[in-house]
Amino acid sequence: MKRTFLVTILVFVAGLGIGYFARGAMGAIQRKDTHAADLAAIEKLHRADVEATLTQDPSALTILWSDDGVNLGFAGGPVVGIKNMGEAYAKFRADYPDFKVLKYEPNITQIEIVDGWAIEVGDIAATYKMSAKEEPASVNDKGVRVLKRQSDGSWKFAVVGLK
Q: How many CA atoms are closer than 13 Å to the CA of 144, on its beta-carbon side?
């Protein structure tokens, strides 16, 4: 009886150990797959950001943001929320109808993804004209962007601060 009991205990403990390590390995594989999917979705956001910035279409710019997004790049203080973001983009377009972005090249040097949030660090080189009559101006801003994973797996900007 003691021997059977001991063997049963050993088999049970071995099963627990195998299950624990197998689950850990599968979790690492799943995390790697999720990370790759997140990076692909973030790259899709980056491409949409470049396209929307070059066209300066207010609706295309607005849909890049999460519902509660915060844009620190507007003159006059932060713009908070998707509704206000859309209004700010439309107002800027109305105030500067000839504004044109000639070059927009984000260079993300670091990205960390944790629990549905991503933090990007990098710089953005851009050339633009405020009006058809003005000479082009260039900027090279550095900053941080915080991204938020949406329920459909896509990513949107949550906070953008450039300097």
A: 7
- Answer for the pair 57, 49: CB distance below 8 angstroms, yes or no: no
Q: Which residue has the tokens 């849909």?
A: 63
Q: What is the pLDDT of residues 44-82, one digit of tens each?
A: 999 999 999 999 999 999 999 999 999 998 888 899 999
Task: Name the CATH code of domain 2-162 (choices 3.40.50.970, 3.40.50.2300, 3.40.50.150, 3.10.450.50).
Answer: 3.10.450.50
Structure tokens at 38: 């997140």
Separation of alpha carbons 62 and 92, rounded Å? 13
Rounded to a whole number of angstroms, the CA Rg of the chain reads 24
Tokens of residue 150, six digits: 């949406």
